[in-house]
Design brief:
Blueprint (H helix, E strand, L loop, with lengths): L1 H22 L17 H8 L1 H34 L5 H13 L2 H15 L5 H25 L3 H9 L4 H12 L1 H17 L2 H6 L7 H11 L4 H23 L8
Length: 255
């Protein structure tokens, strides 16, 4: 019974994705399931549409930048939380995961008000800051898990032999926690690349990421080009998830 329920749940979750992928190969000018003829027409249309190409490049650069900043900040925060005991440590730990507890719409409105006061609305810096806020809680958790697996005695031994803390972190801790750092980077990249709700509040016409461009495209016209773009995004996300699972194992991310 439990196995059957799990199978039904998986089918329920994956069926819409399968339909989108299937419809992306239709030769028709409307959404339909190709049963006889299959075509790559809409993939060609997707790559020929400058809006999608520019939005993909922007999303790629933004996700890489957000993941890099989030991993850097996440490592510093995770190291302090794992290695040190100080007053307010529990409160600080809760603070770093607080964006996960706030509804995305509320967080987007709050960030919009904040960046408006700084004059960063509809700028790359403003969107980057918002994405970092969204993904940092995940990087802190993943990196903290990796750091707990690094024996603290190894760090003590390095510093007892005359190594400065910065040198010790660079030559001892980071190499030993490398798998966790890479996993955190990939996780942050996926989340940033696919982020929609908060990004809508942070961008105008100048900075439209690929998910936002797809959303705006659907408001003007509806054709299988969107299905082709969505299929490419599904393939990219699935590939990164597979890499993430190979590196650290998805079951270890929440520990």
């Amino acid at each position: 019974m439990l196995v059957a329920l799990n199978v039904l749940m998986v089918v329920f979750m994956l069926a819409p994705l399968v339909l989108v992928v299937w419809m992306s190969f239709t030769p028709d000018e409307f959404f339909s399931l190709p049963l006889q003829a299959f075509s790559l027409r809409w993939y060609h249309e997707a790559f020929a549409y400058p809006g999608f190409v520019d939005a993909f490049v922007l999303s790629l650069v933004l996700a890489l930048a957000a993941a890099t900043v989030a991993v850097s900040l996440g490592f510093l925060a995770a190291y302090a939380l794992v290695r040190f005991r100080f007053p307010g440590r529990a409160a600080l730990d809760t603070f770093f995961v607080s964006p996960l507890l706030v509804p995305a719409v509320v967080l987007g409105i709050a960030l919009l008000q904040f960046v408006n006061r700084l004059g960063l609305y509809n700028t790359f810096a403003g969107v980057l800051a918002a994405h970092v806020v969204v993904v940092v809680p995940y990087t802190v958790r993943v990196i903290a898990t990796a750091l707990r697996a690094v024996p603290e005695e190894v760090e003590w031994a390095a510093m007892n032999l005359g190594s400065r803390r910065g040198t010790m972190l660079r030559r001892i801790t980071l190499p030993l926690a490398r798998r966790g750092m890479i996993a955190a980077f990939l996780f942050a990249f996926i989340l940033s690349f696919d982020e929609v709700t908060v990004t809508i509040f942070m961008t105008g016409p100048a900075y439209q990421t690929l998910p936002i461009r797809v959303y705006n495209y659907l408001t003007d016209q509806v054709d299988p080009t969107v299905a082709a773009v969505s299929t490419l995004l599904i393939a990219l996300s699935a590939a990164l998830v597979v890499v993430l699972d190979r590196i650290v194992g998805l079951e270890n991310l929440g520990r």
